[in-house]
Fold:
Amino acid sequence: MLMLKAGWHDSLIVLGGLSKLRVLKMYKLTKLLLLISVFFTTYCNADRVKDIASIQGVRSNHLVGYGLVVGLDGTGEQTAYTAQAFKTMLSRFGITLPPGLTPKMKNVAAVAVHAELPAFAKPGQNIDITVSSLGNAKSLRGGALLLTPMKAVDGQIYALAQGNLVVGGFGAEGADGSRVTVNIPTAGRIPNGATVERMVNSSFGEGDHFVFNLHQSDFTTARRLAKAINEFVGPNTAKPLDATSVQVSAPRDISHRVAFMSALENVEVEPADINSRIIINSRTGTIVVGKNVRLKEAAVAHGSLIVSINENQRVSQPNPLALGTTEVTEDSNVTLTQQEGKMFRFNPGVSLDELVRAVNAVGAAPGDLMAILEALKQAGAIQGELIVI
Structure:
């Protein structure tokens, strides 16, 4: 009897009546099959549960604070609220300025401090913070943030921020007013710049179940998620509540629940195809066409009309003895040019590739393509949703 320890789990495989050479061949064959399965799994459309859904009640919280950045090299600001905050800070240290005295500060700037408090963050842990100028400070480069309380929407202090800023931008200004700025010098970050002081209560360990919320609502994906969990754990473990939520029964013991969640979040689910959509960003000219978009039979002709207006000034100079005045007249020349428009025809069920090839063939610019797509939608020739953002 030969006992061989498997490399992919901790149990022992007991093989009897087999030679050692044959066992090794079987072991290598098994490893090859595992590699092949991993290869095909990588290229399938399945996603992990952690990539398509989140747990209801387990989320981050936004924090914000108001503070002062000091130590600037003459790039600070002189505003009323900065002076008021500076006086308040000095009063906390027992320093009182004479009445009516407004300090002139060029190395101090009032800033807004904001951060994201992760779920399950405990007191004593550090989080990153972002610091942004509130006034007319020219740069925060080289500055240090003084102790700043950070509050949540309930008004409670959840973290304290302080530290030296890391600013990626800088600026330079000449005596004649010329100025050069690289990136944004009025905002910076402090890695691990805030210490958590209060914990946010979570409902993760409460009740007999928890709920997965899909990032993109879809009835088919919700049904597939519940089916995958039931196949992995057992029947009636998960049930879809609607197009977004799937309720999962879970153990009450918190350590068992964590282990249970660790196993579930790596279960693979194949999400449903999204709705057929065409997204148009009219400001940037960006157009994204989904793979399921189809066109009905249609013919499109699109030509460009170019209007050119040239303004020329003519000076009318009278004779020296005419006692007239010099007059400047405007001479406008308007030219209208219409480029040749090409017509192309779409057959029923045209795919995305054919649409792109047809549009590229006529050399349509993004603006022309937007007009074509909007006209096709109005004609009812697009099988999908047209969204303009």
The mean pLDDT is 77.
